[in-house]
Amino acid sequence: MSAPGDRAAALDVERAIRDAARAGNRLLAGARVQLRLAPGRRRELLAGALARMGARILDAHGTGGRDDAAVRARTGIDVVFVDAAAEAEMAAEASAAAPDDAAAPDDEASADDALAASAVATDAPGALPPTIVRVPGGARPLRGADARARIDWASRGMPATAGLLAALREELGGRGIRLGVSLVLEPKTAAFAAALARAGCEVAVFSAVSETDPEVAAALAAEPGVVVFAPTEPVDAAAAGVDAADLAADASAVDAAHAAAILDWAPEYLIDDGAHLIRLAHTERPSALATLRGASEETTSGVRPLREAAETGALRVPVIAANDARTKSDFDNLIGTGQSCVLAIADCLDPAGDARGEAGPDGDARGTDPPGDARPGIAGTRWAVIGYGPVGIGVARFAAALGAEVTVVERDPVRALSALHDGHEATTADAALARADVVVSATGVWHTIDAAGFARLRSGTAVAVAGGIDDELALDELRDAGWRSRPSTGRIAEWTAPDGRSVRILADGGGVNYTAAEGNPIEVMDLSFATQVSALLRLVRADAAGRPLPAGVHALDRADEERVARAALAAHGGGAEASPDGARPGGAAQEWTVHRYRRGN
């Protein structure tokens, strides 16, 4: 893709895809997409990228060729990409359909309305409307920019969670439980917490300063039945008149106070992220264990230490590893984090973001100026992805879909071999880091990229964390080695070594998708939250039956996974074959004694 025309078309396509995802915080994998573009290079590149991401590209009727009413009602459209010709055609249709005495409509609004009306609408209650994306030109947001509007939008896009919460409400039968929720606090989490309260829970929400949208936190705090232990006002170093180091120290103190406070609130159950509150209760806040009856853990980095605690006999409560459920790790970790991290990185690195008026829901423009001769766009850039678990697989998949050349660094030789068969290179950190334009840590392991790793990078390399834990990038080692940092633009800081080389650190080394963007898409979080509710239901039912789960780490039942998946399938126009009655324990079609060589054959 070396020709200028191809590069320009690829950048238009990348920006259109980013616009489609950002406009409503929507998932592209599995999305029902229409392409209303004239034949040509842009359409070809767009169709290829979307297909590699897993989008379902439908015809003009939205049905892949079938046009009967039942199919049209079941399979709505999530995104429509249009060019100038299609937009003009739709605007003309809207004008022709309007009454003669109607006021002249706004051209952009009428085109969007006509396109949305002509895209197949689903009969599912509360379904989100299609997003209209101009190629080039951007998307017209369908949700409001304020926190309340963003929370309401997220609520409409989580049907699987709504179904499981109805089961929780029925199970509780009017008796309340005290539930602590520790998750990144953005619109989807706020919608989830408010829905938990409506289902009969007393809810307390904790979120770290760096993982909180203060406007959303303030809106959530106004909800009945919800207490918020998170900042409800922006925390800004310049506004506070302090340097970044002092602000970080203050933020840590605020986080510690809020974490202690939610445990002092005495929750009976916890939905935790990183197992930080569970570990705090076991180490410095043991009084919380007097009321804590069980928990569910959201992340790989949280399940790991809990298994160690259980192995040593130190874990004193039952914890369900929601992270390990297929409805979580196969979607949230792989698809959701993959998409949201790659697109957040692209937003940060796009120098035209400010000029195009691209902004996140908080109003902050995402674009930044690249150093030197760096050209915008992911196509043709070289990415090193460290770690090839579900998050690394997802990052590699979405980066490659946009035209990146991906090299994987992985210690597990089986996973490295898998990367090769997925179409990527697999090599050592020494080889991959030295030639990378973008480096993404996707391990969830402390100091994945240490000072020695940073020393291998070329000047101008961008470094980001996907998912992430504290200090996944060894920035402390860089400070000790004499590196100096200064803010650049957007969410990028330039770190300069004593020899003058510099690298670009995105989002201060935090998880780039939730610190520089709006986190994982709504459809993915619907699955994750529904999985968390399934875990909570299991804990509550076991306690109500007088047979509480023993202390330790427990897997979510397969039946619970399937219940979540079937609800999501139905919401997105899909279905699954029913399991046969009387299925054998091992899944074989015949009794185990039946074999090829038995006598009488």
Structure description:
43% of the residues lie in helices and 14% in strands. By secondary structure, it is α/β, with parallel strands linked by helices. The strands form 3 sheets. Strands 14-13-12-15-16-19-18-17 form an 8-stranded mixed β-sheet, with helices on both faces. Strands 8-7-6-9-10-11-20 form a 7-stranded parallel β-sheet, with helices on both faces. α2 (41-53) links the parallel β1 (32-36) and β2 (56-58). α7 crosses α22 (558-571), α14 crosses α15 and α21 packs antiparallel against α22. The protein is globular.
Largest sheet, described in full? 8 strands, mixed
Number of helices: 22
Main sheet: strand order: 14-13-12-15-16-19-18-17
Number of strands: 20
Output the structural class: alpha/beta
- The unreliable regions are 66-74, 238-242, 352-374
The end-to-end span amounts to 61 Å
Mean pLDDT comes to: 87
Question: What proportion of the residues form beta strands (DSSP E)?
Answer: 5-15%
- So what's the overall shape? globular
Q: Helix amount, in percent?
A: 40-55%
As a whole number of angstroms, the C-alpha radius of gyration is: 25 Å
